[in-house]
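User: Round two. Same drill as before: sequence, then structure, for each protein.

Assistant: Same drill it is. First protein:
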Amino acid sequence: MKKYCLFVVTTLLITLFTGCRNSGEKSTQKSTDLITARTLGLAYLEEFKLEEAEKEFLKFIDLAPDDKFGYANLGLTYLRMANYPDAEKALAKAIKIDPKDPDVRLILATVYKMNNEREKAIEELISALEFAPDHKKILYEISELYSTQPDEDSWKQRENYIEILVRNAPDNLVPRLNLTDILIRKGEFDKAVEQMEIINKQFPEFPREAVEYFDKTLSLLRKKDRENAIIQFTIFHNYLKVTPPYQAGIMDLKGPGGSLIGFPVITFDRRGPSSGNEEDRSLLDIIRFTNVAAGAGLDIIPRTEEGTNAEFRFSSHVVTCDYDGDGDIDIYAGSYDPASSSYKHFLLRNDMGKYADVTREAGLNHSGIEASAAFADFDNDGFPDLFVMKEGGDMLYRNTGKGTFEDITARSKAGSRTGGKKALFFDMDHDGDLDLFEILPQSNLYLRNNSDGTFEDQSAKLGPQTAGIISTAAAFGDFDDDEDIDFIVVSKNSDVCLYSNQRQGVFRDIAAESGLKGYEGAGAVAVGDYNNDGYLDLFIGSLTGENHALLRNLRNGTFEKEKNNSEMLRSLEKVNVFDASFIDFNNDGFLDILAAGEAQGMDGRGINLIYNDGKGNFRNVSELLPSEVKSGKQTAIFDYNDDGDLDALIAGINGGVALLRNDGGNNNHFITMKLVGLRAGSAKNNYFGIGAKVEMRAGDLYETMVVTNPNIHFGIGSNSRADIIRIRWTNGVPQNIFMPVSDQSLVEQQTLKGSCPFLYGWNGEEYVFVKDILWRSALGMPTGIMGGTTSYAFADASDDYLKIPGEMLKQNNGNYIIQVTSELWETIYIDELELVAVDHPDSLDIFVPEQFGPPPFPGPKILTVKEKHAPVSAVDSEGNDVLSFISRKDDIYLAGFKPGKYQGITEMRDLIIDPGQIDVSGRFYLFMNGWIFPTDASINVAISQSDEIKVTPPLIQVLNKKGEWVTVTGSVGFPMGKDKTVIADLSGKFLSEDHRVRIRTNMEIYWDQIFFAEDLPDAPVVNNALSPSSADLHFRGFSEPFRKGGRYGPHWFDYSVVEKGPKWRDLTGNYTRFGDVLPLLSESDNKYIITNAGDETTVSFSAAELPPLPEGWKRDFLIRSVGWVKDGDLNTAFGSTVLPLPFHGMKSYPPSESDTYPDTPDLQKYNREYNTRVVTADEYLNALRVNDKK
């Protein structure tokens, strides 16, 4: 069913008295009547049975005359009848009860609009926005009303409301395209380009036909060609209008329209005294599951009679997913058909709650008996693909994004050639794409996704496997809460395997040491945090009916049996369980269990629903399920009818499916969401965030879950809304969303997580960010970015000289004071700091090479420049004039290139600059100032898995006499972070009279200023080196980030604004204690300061040691920094701990056998005296958890 219901649903009116049993029974009956009237009324309303709906809502009003629900939906019913006067009267009563309900006012505004009372509609919507300024549907409706008027004021109002809507619905394609259209027509080219870039980055892959017009629009916008840009954008816009993401956006904002105009209100009041178990019992009493498979069109899936076709028993399967991106959940199923004596598979598209068979038109033309199937977006294009396990070999179908699939099995090398049984897709190596773990008939398979459309067998990284193992089920989750994804496998003829992620794609079975032995003969495993302590627990279902287990995580990745579940286990005796799921069926915020299987006795129940009361007690409430559904092989949990509670789809043992609609489970509040990983220019996380850990806090309720499918659902009990959501993405980066609304897509923020320590200088008035230091060091960083192999960065300490302009470092009480901060997800080892004062005539300027390169490092190589020659022309790859971007240092950066898949890598591009008629015969240099947005460890791992992408650092080319471009500097290096100058020696490099220079790269580098100059080696320059006079280490926190120079500028930091709370998961271990650390900075001796995120070192240098400046001279500075940096990326070697400690002279990191830390008595004393501050991950892990008790 398309989404046109509200998604934060409060509890209906339940008046419970604490008196005699009879009054309690009357109250329960009234509650039952209310829920019946509500459920039937909404169902009739959605089916356009308006007279029946009217009767039910009138009945509801009679039972609950003080509840707005009845009046609001009665008004909507009259609206759909075109009975506008009665609609207005009913809605006025609802508004009298609750004047601040924006949804009721939206319906009333729709009544006015349909009755051609436009001004009254606008007035009503403006009133609604006073109470709900971020209401997406209202913002869209009012923008549409203003679009119908030609006057300038109306168009300004429309633009204003669309801008607000884009901010509040960043995931919705419709308003962003509308805003882009407005901006282009107004000639606001740069803002239009920004919107186009966002569309490219976060929305699913465009139709192939639309890509050309997207590129043309961008090119024309950069050329400020308004008229032609409008034409090309209109064509692009029209292509996107027919795509599922666009249609889903329209549905979300305005509903299906036509006869189903308006959105039902399903908000109830909870009133009256109630408490504890009585209320829980009453809420359960009014919940029922109803099998609606036939009404939904699912009786098309064949079934066999019990006792017939025994060979096809257990051959049915079912899986759900919104494969076409239209906002509702579709089904793929397989079952044996006795009528045709063949096995059939079905792709069933959800059309308004009815399922239509689209198998043939979707291109799923295979045959054969299937074991199971899985949807997964393996290529990160935003469209879920389909993996089918069947006899004769598995099939991988790529979703084209047009409602069809193409068979790419052969070229992808995905799956087993003989056919598997079950599959898990998750990011096993944390490189941003979904890998495949597959259960085969007598072994298991681990296939790595190479991010180029192919998979590669990595099964050896699972360790030795038991021969002839018959595994039955698997599930993934971060069981030890260390940010990497583990997984568990249960088997028919072997014990449990718990594969602990060792990172770099390697796993180790730790089941024996985790308390998971003794569960041979298991048929199902489910993962969920049933006690809301933040750690993932387990339910294991037995194939024998005798060894089911609910296992509590002891908060360290080990497990013990839950003690308060004897009643539950007794109820499951003699039930062979084939599948199980955690499900919060009543939205109370605690996970219940649905177990599907087969009873050993004829009259037994094979489908069981276990209720978790939130107090550690579990009981069987299977009486809430339809009695005719007695057994099942596989389950899928989803909200079929978008009413805010979770329904269940069950594949039968003898074929067919049951669709169990949950009626009454939405009597508590809930929140739903989807994750959206950035696509273009990032690729750090898979598109739907599969494997991410999502934490939610609402009042005193804390919950967490691992994301296993795109649709995320939290029940939040009596809380009206969630206070905070924290996403811990699969690359380990956290993201907080405060006061989230329901039915929201949470878009990944492209966060800077590693860039080395920051240096701030006192400019005479305040501390200001100068630049990042120690950039050459990247301990344990995979650097296989040239394609084909993975290796690690050199282990040498960074030893850099970077320029600090004199205006950014002034004396403060006779000292030059710098602040060196650790603010990103990394551990810093600072061994030496030195400040070099460089005095020179103010008619000159000095520069040092600040580009990245391997050892040996250049040292303090100072170039002295008198006259800077800006290029006389500069053109990019498309011939655009870009001279204005690079002619001066003004924080206006040259961009205009198309991002690639990954952060840090773009399309190959050229910049051609002409020095003009100047003398190039001497010591002639090219100076390029800018910054780099780098790849990271996990991106480097992804790139190394194939030869598809090779990174080209900037190379310098000149023209020979034939007019051909020739490379004269193969790799000049790239900026070491922010505001760095890359210097290229062009002396004697020109090969013709044409002195144009071409700079070619596909690294994400943004240039600010480029110029030519002659180095004056004999110019008067005086250097004076200063050692620190004092150094104090302390905790400070995190400066507020911003983008200097706009969206193409580097991440910059405001020292005056500080956040104190935990920001990253700390690398654990011993850090340097706070206080005086001056002895550790005097020389490079392996006695270094070890700093954690949030730490700051205040370092002073005495100005008294420097001579006075001669008149007409200027003082600039060089900061020399020696040390190492290790970031917390999940693919950094030893990226979770301070150890192993680096040292000068080590050959590699991770250390080889010959790289032994020089544990001399002197260093032992240093470690004992200084490195005594123990840091754990507890503060980060417990940031959202409530009343955390061991």
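Second protein:
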Amino acid sequence: MKKKQLLGSGCAAVLVLLLIGIWNLWFSSTRVAFVNYQVISLGQISKANDNSFIKIAEVSTDELDKLTSYDMVFINAMGMRVTEEQRAQIQKAADGGLPILTTSATNPANEIISLDSIQADTLRSYLENGGRRNYRSMLNYVRKHIDGKLISVDEPEAVTERSNDMIYHADPKKPDDEELGFNTIAGYNAFLQENGLLQEGAPRIIITGMMGEPADLIRKLEETGNVVYPVRSMKGFIGRHQIDSVSPSAVINMAHGRMGDYIVDYLTQQNIPLFTPLNVNRLVEEWENDKMGMSGGFLSQSVVTPEIDGAIRPFALFGHYRDEEGLQHAFAIPERLETFVETVNNYIKLQNKPNNEKRVAIYYYKGPGQNAMAAAGMEVAPSLYNLLLHLKKEGYKVDGLPASSKELERMIQAQGAVFGTYAEGAFDNFMKNGHPELIAKEQYESWVRKVLRPEKYAEVVSSFGEFPGEYMATGDGRLGVARLQFGNVVLLPQNAAGKGDNAFKIVHGTDAAPPHTYIASYLWTQFGFKADALIHFGTHGSLEFTPKKQVALSSNDWPDRLVGALPHFYIYSIGNVGEGMIAKRRAYAGLQSYLTPPFLESSVRGIYRELVEKIKIYNNAVSACSNGAHEQESRKDMRSEVDLRRASLAVKAVAVKLGIHRELELDSVLTVPYTEDEILRIENFAEELATEKITGQLYTMGVPYEDARIKSSVYAMATEPIAYSLLALDKLRKRADEKTVKHRALFTQHYLNPARTLITRLLANPALGTDELICRVADITPDELAKARKMEKSRNAPQGMMAMMMAMGDGEKAPMKKMPSSVEYTKEEITFALAVMEVERTIKNVGEYKKALIESPEKELLSMTNALNGGYTQPSPGGDPIVNPNTLPTGRNLYGINAEATPSEAAWEKGIQLANNTIEMYKRRHNDSIPRKVSYTLWSGEFIETEGATIAQILYMLGVEPLRDAFGRVTDLKLIPSKELGRPRIDVVVQTSGQLRDIAASRLFLINRAVEMAAHAKDDQYENQVAAGVVEAERVLIEKGLTPKDAREISTFRVFGGANGGYGTGIQGMVMSGDRWESEKEIADTYLNNMGAYYGSEKNWEAFRQFAFEAALTRTDAVIQPRQSNTWGALSLDHVYEFMGGLNLAVRNVTGKDPDAYLSDYRNRNNFRMQEVKEAIGVESRTTIFNPTYIKEKMKGEAECLILTSSKKKPDRTERRSYFRRRMTRER
């Protein structure tokens, strides 16, 4: 009996197992995995799935070990980044029989397919043609023909050819069904009419792009009185002239990459603004809690490249939610949707509202008390006055405007002042006589409830107490907002965004909430004054540096809340594109660029004439000794040596008298002659002084440069590009004389002076700039010119997958075939083409440079009022016009670069050269030894303008090189073999400004990965200084008390920046206030603390680990600071001493010795070089603060009056220097 029971139980178990097996084989659910698919695409596939027996799941590249639990795997390999190990996991699953289909592989190694060709082609066709019908059939095909199930199987339909509908819209009667398609405007308008959506005279808005779920956006725009045209292919819509009958008021692009130059041309012609709301591409809660907001490829494609199209308002609108099955879906975040739609409507209102009814709030920046208003390179008071005059001319209601800019400035000092906490008497007087706007508690808190979440306002109360706080408060509990109102235009000072004595940190950001006064000013602008537009005047204020997220801001971030839905414009210097990007991305500002001061040569050649003459005598004596003329007579030989010694001593006597030996670190013993190399350094230093470019008087908006300064600026822009290009061509032809290359004076004689003469002719008659002149100047044939043009066009055209992505971004069907690769050219061919194109570009544009400088001041004013009319502002690169003439004309919206493509190929080549120059300069000073560790500073302006040349230096020092994917992005690295490198791998440590951190986080990750690779290199034929540095850092950390495990982890940390997301070092206030420190160690400790946050990985982003930065600085032998602008130097820009000086001081306190200090000089795009800091300071001081020409220029305009009114006596040199330094550009 027992045996029968056991036998029966066994049979039952077998039967159950058999039934389970049969169920799993033929009847169970079909589990389909999707790898690397966009949530929006996967959401469409999910909506198409009406079969409960088909289960869809998203699998990340970190979960590839789970693939075998699925019945079918789809992999979108476009841009997919997987490790070798992960790729092997996929291949193993495919080899084990798992059905896998990979599409759009940009890396051939990722193209893993385990289906037969018929199955693969069928599924691929369903995917390519898209649409819910095809997706539904694709899933049914998988269940029936691949998974082999027998129940709940619908017969898949034949592939439906992809719709070429130009316009789409949800059916209001069936909103959950697939959108309806239309190919004519008439047909679409009839549909709108039928559904009550076509309103006569209503604004027309176009929505395009693929990176959002637009249904709710369309609905909300329609609810608020707009007619919406959702367009699949904007290029086709324009090309077929269908857009002509729409006459849109705005275009909204849910961007993933550039639209292209065609859209810039169209928007410029039609004057239509372009908005680019963001999809944060993750769950809303994750995004809100993320300190970064967005980084890497999504930042590049959603924010950076659309800016090149002239896009504004990178406002986070779309996010993800998770459904019951765990699948993510994109949606418009309701709270964000309300604000974004209101914002678009507010810009459109500017197009229709009469100017005399528009209300404009203009914020200016000034320091406390009697400090003048400040903006980079600009005379603020007359510039602001000129803008007000222009607004009045354009019909704006600007009542009570004073008779002059000087009177305006006096009014601002009286009624628009900012006060330090110490100025109690002045503050009391202002509250009585300055007529501030007084805000009551009830009013303020009603505004706060509209804008701030309760927890955000709790941060304010925690830091500053209940309203009104201590600052700008009246005795009866109201809060004063300083402002000057002229009719419908109000001027407001930007109040301090924090508290304390550190003025720099207060401007450049703290981690704390801003005080009541700061918040009240912006909320009064929105709700009390009821502004139609907000303007920030001049580079720069503090709004964009308030906490917290770096980009893709949320409703928890202060700039997002304080700007609100107001159209926002920022008058910004072309010379500071790096910080301009922060204003665009964190404060939603449309930038309006303005000119730098003009440029001119230093005019100090006469001061050093005696020295130059002595050097000429010496060089003649060198020639007499080396030309063999005295070989037969030993007495004459001796006489020549005596002459040479005498000539050398004569040079030395003059150099020492002038103090040049100090800048060049040469001895001053007058009885010991200088060597030939030392005199060459003196000669080149003197020639650099003579040819150095300096800035003229501060720029006044609306006022063209003087005629002489227009010409001198064109000389500065055009002379060196031609001279250095001709030298490059002569080097290729082996014509360049070695002496000319070594001696700057000979370069001036043989190249610069002829180039200047050519520019003089072209200024007189630009029509001379013909192909014939180009060929004659460059000594090339017309065929060679045509070849150079062809190469230039080929190298600049989008290639491979980038061209494919641009097509897809415009709604075109993406070809799945392999894209052709770009033409390969030799290094010599590229050098030739670059030189010839530089010559052509300069010769043909001399007249345009002059015209642009003349017209820019008026264009700035016209562009500003066009923006206030809700129009489109053309995009523009940034940088001073010498470095990049394409920044002209001004009055345009600055853009940056795609960080993912850096360092560019050109930057990599230049980075190698500069790194080698650094090593050679160090070896020359240190008995042929190389540096063990070099410390670099990264600034955003340099990064943008050089395309990552400093990052290239860092990588090459480590002995690591970048690898590019099919899109041209630097996504990976490889070790340069030790034998090929030919030297030890040199360790690095990096300090990043907050601005660079915000725009290029992925490059910081790249650097830290490079450090780890270099530290673990196994093939080294030389001592690996990176590995040695890691060992030393670990030892130091253990000595400081860390556990061996923690010390080992932290020992590779090499990328540091401001703590708590700050933008500065925090030492400026200490340096400027001598009573705040007793020893330099206190400053060094403050610097190490404030700049000790780690930014080398997403995992540890912004992590502060005690002693990590200090340990990283051990063994540092040199520090390097970038210098990319001709508008500032180490003396005139306080950020240099703040960053480089702070780093130098910290290294000295950590290592006990002063490191070598160098500048990476990027100011001449044809002659990047390294320069010792002492030498650079010598050049700057001698050509500016000790140069009568410079002082005379800076005393022009109102600068002189402002200085003299502060004192009855004429200011001495120190006072003038202090004044100019305060007014110089602030830039990183």
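The radius of gyration is 33 Å.

User: Perfect.
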